[in-house]
Amino acid sequence: MVNNYNLDSSTFNSLKTVSKKMFAAISKQLNVNTAYITKKSETEMTVLSSYNHDEEIIPEGYSVEYGGTYCRLIIMNENNALNKANLTKDEVTRQLEVTDQLQVKGFLGVTLMDLNGEVFGTLCVMDKEEKEFSEKDREYLKSMADILSHIIELDQTKYNMTFLNVPIIPITKGISILTLQGIIDSYRAEKIMQEVLSYSAEHQIDYFIIDVSGLVILDDFFPHVIVDLVKALQVMGIETIITGITPEIARHDGSNKQLIFSKVKTVPNLESALEYIGFYLLEK
């Protein structure tokens, strides 16, 4: 399966965080030492996140060629699962090099998919002792995989949003526009600050127009990054003009005066911003 999103393993921060919180419960419920998630690429399986209760069996980053993995057997199985009481005695798994390397016996794994039904990898548990896993155990692990599918969707969405996070539009030499839409969380705020300042220095910007007409104020929280960005641009000698202030933003700033105290120029729309700079829009 080709990863349509082309995310590398380091991108799945939410999946790693959530899975680590789930692994201890999974380990206790199924009475196993190790629980882990793998991510499938075209040629190999890589352990994205792992938990080892007593003895480290599977470290994070552990990678095996796809053809020689238990994961291949899981994904190829019509039930999308593999249940073995003793890997070293099973006719198929005992021949795999990974079985000799890991020296594990009890194993249960299920296919991990995204919400589009595409194979992401696997969710597995293993132990150095023989383990008889029941159908109930398999259903339990499958339910955990279903939960993680939603987290995969979250990481994929965040990845795609990075291409829309900082839409900078050049107008002419020294003048550019930043259009901010939707909700700005801490991750997006950091990216906005970093990219706008880098862009400004690289392109020798004199005026930056920031349009906030599409900004969403959530839980009465005004994104402080806008004020910080204005101040940083001022330090760099760049004048900032804010357009598109909605009644909601105006009411909010009327209370906390973040934009007022930053002494930033505000105008109703883009045309007014360009006129302030010295440009005029002429009808053809």
UniProtKB/TrEMBL annotation:
The record's Gene3D superfamilies line, in alphabetical order, gives:
3.30.450.40, STAS domain
Tell me which UniProt keywords the record has, alphabetically: Phosphoprotein
What PANTHER family does the annotation carry?
Answer: RSBT ANTAGONIST PROTEIN RSBS-RELATED, RSBT CO-ANTAGONIST PROTEIN RSBRC
- Kindly give the PROSITE patterns that the UniProt entry links to this protein: STAS
Name all STAS domain ranges. 165-251
Classification lineage:
Bacteria, Bacillati, Bacillota, Bacilli, Bacillales
| Descriptive protein name | STAS domain-containing protein
Which species is this record about? Halobacillus naozhouensis
